[in-house]
Amino acid sequence: MNSAWHLLDPASPSPVRDRQLAINRRQLFGRTATGIGTAALASLLGREAGRADTGVTLPNLTPKAKRVIYLFQNGGPTHVDLFDYKPKLSQVHGQPVPDGYLGGKRFSTMTGDPTGKLMLQPVEPFRQHGDCGAWVSDFMPHTAAIVDDLCFIKSLHTDAVNHAPAISFLLSGAQIPGRPTMGAWLNYGLGSASEDLPGFVVMTSVSKGTTCGQIFYDFYWGSGFLPTRFQGAKFRGSREPVLYLSNPDGLSKDLRRGLLDDLAELNGLKYEQAGDPEIQTRIAQYEMAYRMQTSVPDLTDFSDEPEHILEMYGPQVREPGTFAYNCLMARRLAERGVNFIQCMHAGWDQHNSLTTELYTQCRDTDQPSAALVRDLKMRGLLDDTLVIWGGEFGRTPFIQGDIANRPRWGRDHHPYAFTVWMAGGGVKPGLSHGASDDLGFNAVEKPVHVHDFQATLLHLLGIDHERLTYRFQGRYFRLTDIHGHVVRDILA
């Protein structure tokens, strides 16, 4: 007897058959949309299958934002040198950490016991900017010019003290890899507004000449236990961001279409047998790749960008793989309906390079970040696009290294207070929310935990963070785990 027929034979008990008798609407469409119907399946997977099967209609709140551009700064930007002005640091420069600030806190093994460490003043001076009077370091002149469009959170704090666990915690809600990341959750919960591009795109960059060895792990944009079609699609830093989009010589578009239809039919038969959701992922990915053959070359062609726009992003904008290039790509992706765009820039790990490499990091990222906000605003996209700038933690207010050797000044990892900024997408502009203490050690005024930050992001996208869940290994999971409160003070 044919094995496939045996699985479907009513007289033959089978757990697979029992599962097939209990299929829901989405599974029915997923199993029957083969052959010429692949286009309908791809549309379903792009727009409908991305909606969470939780029994909850999403979005379940009124959304303020339709999309997110996360300018993630790997390595931990130093809050006390960039955005969190603490005059007292200059007053106690070179003195031991005052009693009462440490309180048994855990730091990285590079610091070990912080007792007796010397306080370090900001490397560059701070000045007030804009109508809101926000304090910004001279390291960030372009960001300083747009402070009236920004919402600073200066009381963020996290649980992790090292890079990979802290990045995983901020992006997925867990320090140990294996949970879905923000972009994957949103891809799953809201689907994609783009038919021709993935709903979750990731781009990476690193400043040239940096000694900071930050690694971009795939789990930073992974789907965890969600079906893999919801994970981030990584675009390479080259003129060809996606490999193998062009058809081989001698293969016409019509022939490619026929091959994909036949392949989808074979995969559909296999899905009828196995019921494995990864087979649906395979069908959807082949279909998306076919559509990207047209959409990606158009996306990466900057010839239609006015010269003044290119100049606004800075001199590196024409160089694929740079942060400036990725910021302009992010705007173009947002225009084309991509819901979550994650631009990750590494090198913010100034353990002994505050007076050297920090200048490079700021030069490479300051102008493009500000240009992106300005560009979105000019095009009427900022109102429904949430832009986020920040890293996984801050840097210690005390020095790492010899205070007498200024060229080697550094700061260690600091999870107890750090700063991010947000723009557009329903947050209040010109606001500084919360505060750290007078030395930048601890979040003391309106503290915001990472899970609160995640809950607020979902709220801005119209999602109650407690209701976007996925059942896995016997329990329901969510981005915020069992924690999180919306930071309502920053909502416009």
What do you see in this structure?
This protein has 15 helices and 17 strands. The strands form five sheets. Strands 1, 4, 5, 6, 7, 8, 11, 12 and 15 form a nine-stranded mixed beta sheet that branches. A two-stranded antiparallel sheet has the order 2-3. A two-stranded antiparallel ribbon has the order 9-10. The chain has 492 residues and is an alpha/beta fold. A hairpin with a 2-residue loop joins strand 16 (470-472) and strand 17. Helices cover 33% and strands 15% of the residues. Helix 4 packs across helix 11 (277-299), helix 10 packs antiparallel against helix 11 (277-299) and helix 13 (323-335) packs parallel to helix 14. The protein folds into two domains: 19-49 and 249-296, no CATH class; 58-241 and 300-490, Alkaline Phosphatase, subunit A.
Question: Strands, helices and their partners?
Answer:
Blueprint lengths: L2 H6 L6 H7 L3 H8 L5 H11 L18 E8 L4 H4 L4 H5 L34 E4 L4 E4 L3 H4 L5 E8 L5 H10 L9 H9 L9 E7 L26 E3 L17 H22 L2 H23 L7 H7 L9 H13 L4 E7 L10 H22 L6 E6 L3 E2 L17 E2 L3 E6 L7 E3 L1 E2 L6 E3 L2 E2 H11 L9 E3 L2 E3 L15
Parallel strand pairs: 1-7, 1-8, 4-12, 4-15, 5-6, 5-7
Antiparallel strand pairs: 2-3, 4-11, 8-11, 9-10, 13-14, 16-17
Helix pairs in contact: 4-11, 10-11, 13-14
